[in-house]
Design brief:
alpha+beta, four-stranded mixed beta sheet, 4 strands, globular, binds zinc ion
C-alpha cells in the first residue's frame, strides 16, 4: 500500500489535474486576472474553481459545448483542461476563461432565477424567431456580453 506521503502526492496530482483556481489558469495563459475587476466586480478569479466536468454532467451538454459556468464554478471538457496543462493555444484558452468568468459575474449580478429565466427566455425567443440552435444561442444577451468580455482583454504574456 501507499504510505501517507504517497497518498498525499497522488491526491495532490489528481487535484491539480481536475481543478484549479481560475486566476492560476489565467496567469498561465498570459492574462492578468486583475484587469477583469472593472467588468466583473463580483468575481475574484482566485476564488473561482475550474473543474473537469464529470462524464454524467457532460452527457447533458449540447454538442460543441466546451465549458459551462454554474454558480459553483466553471466546468470544462477534459480536452480543455489538457490544453491549459499543456500550454497549447494559450490565448484561446485564456479568452474562454474570461468568457466563463463573465457568466459567473452574471449569476451573481442577476441571481439564479433571473439568470436562468433570462438565458432560456432569450434562447426560446430566438427559436421562436426561427433562428437555428447556434444562432439562437449566440443571440442570448448574456452570451453576447460574455463574448464581448472575452474579446476586450489582451494577453500580457506568459509569466
Ligand atoms: Zn457562454
Amino acid at each position: 500500500m501507499f504510505g501517507i506521503d504517497g497518498r498525499r502526492e497522488m491526491y495532490a496530482a489528481s487535484f491539480m489535474y481536475d481543478t484549479a483556481p481560475a486566476a492560476d489558469l489565467l496567469l498561465a495563459t498570459g492574462f492578468d486576472p486583475d484587469v477583469l475587476s472593472e467588468a466583473m466586480p463580483r468575481v475574484d478569479p482566485a476564488t473561482v474553481k475550474v473543474r473537469v466536468a464529470s462524464p454524467l454532467f457532460r452527457r447533458f451538454w449540447a454538442k460543441g459545448i466546451v465549458a459551462v459556468a454554474l454558480p459553483t464554478g466553471i466546468y470544462v471538457q477534459p480536452a480543455v483542461m489538457e490544453r491549459f496543462r499543456a500550454g497549447a493555444e494559450p490565448e484561446r484558452s485564456g479568452r474562454l476563461l474570461v468568457h466563463e468568468l463573465m457568466h459567473i459575474e452574471q449569476w451573481r449580478r442577476l441571481g439564479a432565477i433571473q439568470h436562468t429565466t433570462q438565458y432560456l427566455g432569450d434562447y426560446l425567443k430566438g427559436r421562436w424567431r426561427r433562428l437555428g440552435h447556434w444562432e439562437a444561442y449566440r443571440a442570448i444577451r448574456l452570451e453576447v456580453e460574455a463574448r464581448e468580455a472575452a474579446a476586450s482583454v489582451s494577453p500580457v504574456g506568459p509569466r
